[in-house]
C-alpha cells in the first residue's frame, strides 16, 4: 500500500513537471511570436529600434530583448510600443497575422460598420437558421428595474408560454440562492452556472419567455449564445426610473451607504448600451404605465414574429 502511494505521488509529480514544461514552452513561443511581429511592424514603418524606443519611451534594451524573443512582456510597455507603431495591441498578440490574415481585415471592416450592416453580415455568415434556432423563445434583457420580470410574466400569459427567470434556474440547480452562488464561487463560477442553465433551457423547451440578469451581456460567449437561440428585446429606461423601481420593490441596496450609486448606475448603462443594443428590438419603458408598456411589448413581439 505504501509502495502504491509512492508510485502515485511520483506519477503526479511527473505529470506536474511535464505540464510545467508545456506551459513554459507555450509561453516561450508566445514571446517569440510577439517579438517577431514587433520587429516586422518596425521594419515596415522604416524606423530604427532606437527611434521606436524614443517614440514609445521604452528602453532600447527592452526592445532588443523583445524582438529577440527573450523579453518578459509587460502589457503596459507593449501597449506603448503598439501605439508608437500605430498598431492595435491585439495585432501583436493575436493568433492571426495582421499583415496577411483576411480575418483581421474583416474585423477592421466590421469594427467600423453600422449596426444594420453588422446584422446583415452575421445573417450571411451564421450557418444556422435563426428562425429555427430561436423558435418561440423570447428573452427580455436590460438592467434591473427595466421591468423584465413584471412584463415577462404578463407576456407569458399573453402568449400562453411558460415564464422563466434565469436566476431561479441557477438556484434550482445549485440548491442555493444566486447571491450565495456569487459569494461561494465568485463571478466566474456564477457565469459558468448561468451558461449551463441557459443551455439547459434551450435543450428542454422551444417555447418560453425568459428574464435574465442585466450582467449577462458582459460574458461574450454566453450572450452570443443567447442572441442565437432567443428572440431578444432590450427593455430600457432612464437611470432615475431604474433606481426608483428597484427601491419600490423594497431593495434599498443600490443606495445604501453609496452616495455615488446614481453616478455608477449611469456609468453601467453607458458601458452596456452597445451590448444591449444587439437585441432584435428595443422598448423604452420610461414614463410608461404598466398597461402602456405591455401593449408596446405585444406590438414589438408581433413584429418579431414570435406569435
TrEMBL record:
GO terms for cellular component: cytosol. Residues 38-92 form the HTH cro/C1-type domain. One of its GO terms (biological process) is amino acid biosynthetic process. Pfam families: HTH_3, SKI. One of its GO terms (molecular function) is magnesium ion binding. Substrate binds at residues 191, 214, 272. It is an enzyme of class 2 (transferase). Its cofactor is Mg(2+). It is found in: Cytoplasm. It catalyses: shikimate + ATP = 3-phosphoshikimate + ADP + H(+). ATP binds at residues 145-150, 253, 288. Binds 1 Mg(2+) ion per subunit. Its main location: cytoplasm. Mg(2+) binds at residue 149. Keywords: Amino-acid biosynthesis, Aromatic amino acid biosynthesis, ATP-binding, Cytoplasm, Kinase, Magnesium, Metal-binding, Nucleotide-binding, Transferase. The keyword Nucleus does not apply. Its EC number is 2.7.1.71. The keyword Metal-binding applies. Pathway: Metabolic intermediate biosynthesis; chorismate biosynthesis; chorismate from D-erythrose 4-phosphate and phosphoenolpyruvate: step 5/7. Belongs to the shikimate kinase family. Catalyzes the specific phosphorylation of the 3-hydroxyl group of shikimic acid using ATP as a cosubstrate. Monomer. This is Shikimate kinase.
Amino acid at each position: 500500500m505504501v509502495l502504491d502511494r509512492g508510485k502515485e505521488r511520483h506519477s503526479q509529480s511527473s505529470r506536474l513537471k511535464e505540464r510545467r514544461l508545456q506551459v513554459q514552452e507555450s509561453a516561450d513561443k508566445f514571446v517569440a511570436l510577439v517579438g517577431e511581429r514587433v520587429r516586422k511592424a518596425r521594419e515596415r514603418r522604416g524606423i530604427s529600434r532606437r527611434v521606436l524606443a524614443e517614440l514609445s519611451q521604452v528602453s532600447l534594451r527592452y526592445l532588443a530583448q523583445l524582438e529577440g524573443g527573450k523579453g518578459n512582456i509587460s502589457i503596459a510597455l507593449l501597449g506603448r510600443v503598439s501605439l508608437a507603431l500605430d498598431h492595435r495591441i491585439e495585432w501583436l498578440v493575436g493568433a492571426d497575422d495582421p499583415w496577411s490574415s483576411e480575418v483581421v481585415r474583416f474585423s477592421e471592416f466590421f469594427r467600423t460598420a453600422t449596426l444594420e450592416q453588422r446584422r446583415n453580415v452575421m445573417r450571411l455568415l451564421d450557418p444556422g437558421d435563426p428562425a429555427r434556432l430561436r423558435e418561440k423563445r423570447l428573452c427580455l434583457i436590460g438592467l434591473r428595474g427595466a421591468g423584465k420580470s413584471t412584463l415577462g410574466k404578463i407576456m407569458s400569459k399573453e402568449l400562453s408560454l411558460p415564464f422563466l427567470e434565469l436566476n431561479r434556474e441557477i438556484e434550482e440547480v445549485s440548491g442555493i440562492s444566486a447571491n450565495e452562488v456569487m459569494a461561494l464561487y465568485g463571478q466566474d463560477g456564477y457565469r459558468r452556472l448561468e451558461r449551463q442553465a441557459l443551455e439547459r433551457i434551450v435543450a428542454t423547451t422551444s417555447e418560453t419567455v425568459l428574464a435574465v440578469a442585466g450582467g449577462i451581456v458582459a460574458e461574450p460567449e454566453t450572450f452570443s449564445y443567447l442572441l442565437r437561440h432567443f428572440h431578444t428585446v432590450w427593455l430600457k429606461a432612464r437611470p432615475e426610473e431604474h433606481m426608483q423601481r428597484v427601491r419600490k420593490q423594497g431593495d434599498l441596496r443600490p443606495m445604501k451607504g453609496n452616495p455615488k450609486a446614481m453616478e455608477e448606475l449611469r456609468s453601467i448603462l453607458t458601458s452596456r448600451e452597445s451590448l444591449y443594443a444587439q437585441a432584435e428590438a428595443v422598448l423604452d419603458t420610461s414614463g410608461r404605465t404598466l398597461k402602456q408598456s405591455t401593449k408596446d411589448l405585444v406590438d414589438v413581439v408581433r413584429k418579431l414574429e414570435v406569435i
